[in-house]
Specification:
542 residues, Dihydrolipoamide Transferase
C-alpha cells in the first residue's frame, strides 16, 4: 500500500517548511533511507527521509514552495498504484495541487504550446540548482562570477559560481554531474534564497518550458515573457557573464579576493597571470602585478593631453555612490528592526581593572596563547550569564526563550561591516581555549572565510571598541539576543587613596537591554556579578 510522506516537525518552533530541492523525481525508485527532499525550516536546512521502499508516485509541493507541518508532500508506493484516494483525505493537498496547476495553464496561453502539458517536475535527468541559504540572516545572494557557462560539462564537485552573501563570499557547488543547461541569474545580479539559478542535466535536454512555468508563477507576466524565448536567448546573456575572458573556457579564473583587489587598484584582471591551481589568479598575483610599459603608456597619453582644459578647483562639488554589499543591507535591516522594535535601555558601570591587568600578565607567562582583555571579558560574561539567565534569553513574540547554553558573539569589524563570530559554550572553556578560538575566528572573519555555523547561534553579544580608544558607547542589540555589552578603553583615573591620591585603571561597560525581556534591576544585578569577576579574575579560575 502507498505510504504518505508528510511535512515533519523539524524544530520546536516550526510551523511550515520550504522545499529547497527534491532529490528524487516522480517515477524514481526510492529506498527507505533515501533522502527525498531538503527542507528549510526556521532554524536550519534539513533532510526529509521517506521511510519506505518503492516508487515516488506523487510530489505535492514544488521546490521553492512552503508546506505546513503535517501537510502531504509526497507519496511512495508500488509502480502504477492508484494513490489519488489518499489525496482526497487532505484538503490542503487538493488546494496545493490546484494552485500548482493554475500558473501552468495560464503560462501556456501567451507563449509556447508545450506549457499546457508541462508539469512542475523537471525533465528526466535534469536537476535544478537554487540559491542556497548560506547564512541564518541571508535573504538573497549576489552572483559574483560564474565559473561555468551554458553547454559546459560539470562534475558533482565543481564550483559553479561564487556568491556574495551578507556575511562572506562563498562557492556554490552543483552536486550533480552533467551539462549546464540553463543559467538564470547574470553575474553581478542578485537572486533570492531558493530562486533557481541554474539547471544541470543531460546534454540537449529542453528545460525552457519548466523555466517559463516557474518564472510565471513567481514573477507574473514580465518574467514569463522573458523566459518564453529561453531555448534560444538564454545562452547568449550567459556567455556574456564572464565577459573578461582570459582562459580557454571563456572565463577568468580568479579568487573573489583577487577580483576585489584588482577592481580596487584599477587593474585589468585579464592581463594578470595566475599562479594558483589551473592558472587561477590569487591575491599574491594582484599584489605582484606590474603593468607593462606599452599598454599603460598608450592610454595614459590621452588623459595627460586633456588635463589642462579640464582642470578643477578643490571647491568643486561631487559625490560617490557606493553600492550596498549584501552584508551592509543585512546590517541595516536587522539592526533597524532591533532598534525600532526592541525597547532599549542602557546601564553603565565602571570596573577597576588593576587586578585584571596584573592577573593577565601572570596568566600570559604560562598560557600557550596570549590572553587579551577581551578574552577575560568573554569568560567573565559567560560565567555571569549562568547566574542571570534572563540576560541569556530571546524575545519570541508570544513567549520568552531562556537558553540553557551560553554562546558568546564578539563583534569584528570588516571592510564591509560588522560580523559576529560565536564562541560556543564559552562558560565551559578555559581562557586559553577562548583566546585561541577567538583569534582563529577573527582571522576568518577578516578574510571572509567564516562558515555559517561560526557566525550564528549567539545568545549574548559583546562589542569592544576599547582598542580604538573609545571611552564609552552604547551598542544596538544583536537579534535574537536580549542584551549586548559595549566595552570601552582602559584609562588611568586619579582617585583619593587614604590621605593622598593614586591612580586606578578604569574601564566603562555599557549594557544595552531589551526591556521586553530584561528589567532594570536584573540588568544591574548582572553588571554587579560581572564586576566581581573582572575585579577579581582569580574567581574565574575556580
Amino acid at each position: 500500500m502507498a505510504e504518505v510522506i508528510r511535512m515533519p516537525l523539524l524544530s520546536d518552533t516550526m510551523t511550515e517548511g520550504k522545499i529547497i530541492a527534491w532529490n528524487k523525481n516522480v517515477g524514481d525508485k526510492v529506498k527507505s533511507d533515501d533522502v527525498l527532499a531538503e527542507v528549510e525550516t526556521d532554524k536550519a536546512t534539513m533532510e526529509v527521509v521517506g521511510y519506505a521502499d518503492g516508487t515516488l508516485l506523487y510530489v505535492g509541493v514544488p521546490a521553492g514552495t512552503a508546506a505546513k507541518v503535517n501537510d502531504i508532500i509526497a507519496i511512495v508506493g508500488k509502480e502504477g498504484e492508484d494513490y489519488k484516494s489518499l489525496l482526497g483525505t487532505d484538503p490542503a493537498v487538493a488546494k496545493t495541487a490546484e494552485t500548482i496547476a493554475q500558473p501552468q495553464t495560464s503560462n501556456a496561453k501567451p507563449e509556447t504550446p508545450n506549457l499546457n502539458t508541462q508539469t512542475v517536475s523537471l525533465p528526466a535527468g535534469a536537476k535544478e540548482i537554487r540559491m542556497p541559504l548560506l547564512s541564518d540572516t541571508m535573504t538573497e545572494g549576489k552572483i559574483v562570477a560564474w565559473n561555468k557557462k551554458v553547454g559546459d560539462f560539470v562534475k558533482a564537485d565543481d564550483v559553479l559560481a561564487e556568491v556574495e552573501t551578507d556575511k562572506a563570499t562563498m562557492e556554490v557547488v552543483g552536486y550533480e554531474e552533467g551539462t549546464l543547461l540553463y543559467v538564470g541569474v547574470d553575474a553581478g545580479n542578485a537572486a533570492k534564497v531558493n530562486e533557481i539559478i541554474a539547471i544541470v542535466g543531460k546534454a540537449g535536454t529542453d528545460v525552457s518550458a519548466y523555466v517559463a512555468a516557474e518564472k510565471s508563477g513567481a514573477n507574473a507576466q514580465p518574467a514569463a515573457a522573458t523566459q518564453a524565448a529561453a531555448p534560444t536567448t538564454t545562452p547568449e546573456p550567459v556567455s556574456s557573464n564572464p565577459q573578461p575572458d582570459a582562459s580557454s573556457n571563456g572565463r577568468v579564473k580568479a579568487s573573489p579576493l583577487a577580483k576585489k583587489l584588482a577592481a580596487d587598484k584599477g587593474i585589468d584582471i585579464n592581463k594578470v597571470s595566475g599562479s594558483g591551481d589551473g592558472g587561477r589568479i590569487v591575491k599574491k598575483d594582484i599584489d605582484n602585478y606590474v603593468p607593462s610599459a606599452t599598454p599603460v603608456a598608450a592610454p595614459a597619453a590621452k588623459p595627460a593631453a586633456a588635463q589642462a582644459p579640464v582642470f578643477t578647483t578643490s571647491a568643486q562639488e561631487g559625490h560617490t555612490d557606493i553600492p550596498l554589499t549584501q552584508m551592509r543591507k543585512t546590517i541595516a535591516r536587522r539592526l533597524g528592526e532591533s532598534k525600532f522594535s526592541a525597547p532599549h535601555f542602557y546601564l553603565t558601570v565602571e570596573i577597576n581593572m588593576d587586578n585584571a591587568m596584573q592577573s593577565r600578565a601572570q596568566i600570559n607567562e604560562v598560557s600557550p596563547v596570549k590572553i587579551s582583555f577581551n578574552d577575560l571579558i568573554i569568560k567573565a560574561v559567560a560565567l555571569s550569564l549562568r547566574q542571570h539567565p534572563y540576560l541569556n534569553s530571546s524575545w519570541m513574540n508570544d513567549f520568552i526563550r531562556q537558553n540553557h547554553h551560553i554562546h558568546i558573539g564578539s563583534a569584528v569589524a570588516t571592510p564591509d561591516g560588522l560580523i559576529v563570530p560565536v564562541i560556543r559554550h564559552a562558560d565551559q572553556k578555559s581562557l586559553s581555549q577562548i583566546a585561541a578560538e577567538t583569534k582563529e575566528l577573527n582571522g576568518k572573519a577578516k578574510d571572509k572565510k567564516l562558515q555559517p555555523h561560526e557566525f550564528s547561534g549567539n545568545t549574548f553579544t559583546i562589542s569592544n571598541l576599547g582598542m580604538m580608544d573609545i571611552e564609552e558607547f552604547t551598542a544596538i542589540i544583536n537579534p535574537p539576543d536580549s542584551a549586548i555589552l559595549a566595552v570601552g578603553r582602559i584609562k588611568e583615573v586619579v582617585v583619593k587613596k587614604g590621605e593622598g591620591f593614586g591612580v586606578n585603571n578604569v574601564m566603562k561597560l555599557t549594557l544595552s537591554c531589551d526591556h521586553r525581556v530584561v528589567d532594570g534591576a536584573v540588568g544591574a544585578s548582572f553588571l554587579q556579578t560581572l564586576r566581581k569577576y573582572l575585579e577579581n579574575p582569580v574567581t574565574m579560575l575556580v
